From TrEMBL:
PANTHER family: RAN BINDING PROTEIN 9-RELATED
Domain CTLH per the UniProt entry, residue ranges: 251-308
InterPro entries listed in its UniProt record: B30.2/SPRY (IPR001870), B30.2/SPRY_sf (IPR043136), ConA-like_dom_sf (IPR013320), CRA_dom (IPR013144), CTLH/CRA (IPR024964), CTLH_C (IPR006595), SPRY_dom (IPR003877), SPRY_RanBP9/10 (IPR035782)
Organism domain of life: Eukaryota
CDD domains for the chain: SPRY_RanBP9_10
Protein name: Ran-binding protein 10
Pfam family, one: CTLH
Residues in B30.2/SPRY domain copies: 1-177
């Protein structure tokens, strides 16, 4: 969700009677200048109560009225800012001004940046904390970066007004933005992802990264039965120092028979194949064994052999009183299938969908691997899980770059 559209209810900070923000009349997210506007000493600035969120933050401001002179500044300020100065005139403040089109930071003179703006224009402000830049849009058109090397970590959206009748209205995402923020997000993400791709690979203790990568790739391919590709990696990256053991091939093919039986709806065949692969594996997991039996009941309902389903249920499934909460609920759901003329379109119809078989096959396979003391996931898959966990933790800590990266796209995985 970028640029970040906050679920907060945004507000301008209330004015105080002893500062220049008393020259501003605030109504919702509207700000109007009602001061004398004679000199720069009459300028007034207001910020939001909350700071810009991490990562990529964007908001827009409509110029409702440029007022007498259009001395309107839009940008960001720090927590403790001078309410009697336009944004950009003071340290730790950044502003783009409508009367001259200049960008201001810690200066009252500014530098040429973009076009002037006035009544009817919509200005957008983008704070990219990952790249430490601030950029603007005008009427949806990207104007480029105005400020680089922004060292302030905490900045607040702000507007400053200076002459009578100037009025602006801010939008923090409650209504659609004028600019194509998705495109700006994509560009920012591309920069971060290119930086990641250009990082050198870690070197293992033997002095090279090729062997480390080769072993990771080889083990992943071998675990998922891609024997030809695994052999190619062994040859091209590992100098034929490894090979897929025949026992690995046999184990994989045996597990594949179990999966194929479940996905094909043959629960008896699946139980027989599982027992042949690892005797007692499913008996050691009574909850999983119960699910397999329930799936056989479902398969009988699928072909509308209700009498056989009832007979099987009485003989093999037991009563809800003897089961745990989840198993009892599943038993109730599959029995309910018998009440419908068209079970597939009933509220419990998902039990008849291919996804139910696939999920059961995954869980049975995991149980067989565990019983054989084999890893359920390859090192490559575990690394992926670690990366996802690291990204989630960095996002939780509001690291500015973490939320910009689409890890699946970066790794070339299907969305």
């Amino acid at each position: 969700m970028f640029p970040r559209v906050s679920t907060r209810s945004w507000h301008w900070q209330p004015s105080a009677s002893n500062d220049n923000s008393r020259f501003l009349r605030i109504s919702g997210l509207s700000v109007k200048y009602v001061g004398p506007g004679d000199t720069d000493a009459d300028a007034a600035c207001v910020r939001t109560t909350d700071p810009a969120e991490s990562g990529l933050f964007y908001f827009e401001v409509d110029v409702v009225n440029k007022g007498r002179d259009g001395f309107i500044g839009i940008g960001f300020v720090s927590h403790d800012f001078d309410k009697g100065r336009l944004p950009g005139w003071e340290p730790h403040t950044f502003g783009y001004h409508g009367d001259d089109g200049k960008a201001f930071h810690n200066s009252s003179s500014g530098i040429p940046y973009g076009p002037k703006f006035g009544t009817g224009d919509r200005l957008g402000v983008m704070f990219n904390r990952a790249e430490r830049t601030i950029a603007y849009t005008k009427n949806g058109i990207y104007l480029g970066i105005a400020f680089r090397n922004v060292q302030d970590d905490v900045l607040y959206p702000a507007v400053g007004l200076r002459t009578p009748d100037e009025e602006v209205l801010a939008n923090f995402g409650a209504v659609p933005f004028k600019a194509d923020v998705s495109a700006m997000k994509a560009e920012a993400a591309y920069v971060i992802e290119q930086q990641i791709r250009s990082m050198p690979l870690p070197v293992d203790k033997t002095g090279g990264s090729t062997a480390t990568l080769g072993h990771i790739i080889f083990s992943h391919l071998a675990q998922h039965g891609h024997w030809g590709s695994a052999a190619a990696v062994a040859r091209d990256m590992l100098g034929e120092t490894v090979a897929v053991p025949p026992s690995t091939v046999q184990d994989f093919e045996a597990r594949l028979r179990v999966r194929g039986a479940i996905v094909g709806g043959d629960m008896d065949g699946a139980l027989a194949a599982a027992e042949a692969f690892q005797p007692g594996a499913l008996a050691a997991c009574p909850h999983l064994l119960q699910r397999v039996k329930c799936q056989k009941f479902v398969e009988l309902v699928r072909v509308r052999d209700d009498q056989a389903a009832l007979a099987y249920g009485k003989a093999e499934l037991g009563s809800a009183a003897d089961l745990g909460p989840e198993q009892a609920e599943l038993l109730s759901d599959i029995l309910t299938l018998l009440c419908y003329e068209d079970p597939a379109n009933s509220p419990q119809g998902t039990l008849l969908q291919p996804a139910a078989r696939a999920a059961l096959a995954d869980d049975v396979d995991a149980a067989l691997l565990k019983a054989r003391q084999l890893p359920q996931h390859s090192p490559l898959e575990r690394l992926y899980c670690i990366l996802k966990a690291m990204q989630s933790e960095l996002e939780r800590e509001q690291h500015p770059a973490a939320s910009l990266v689409d890890l699946d796209r970066l790794l070339g995985l299907p969305s």
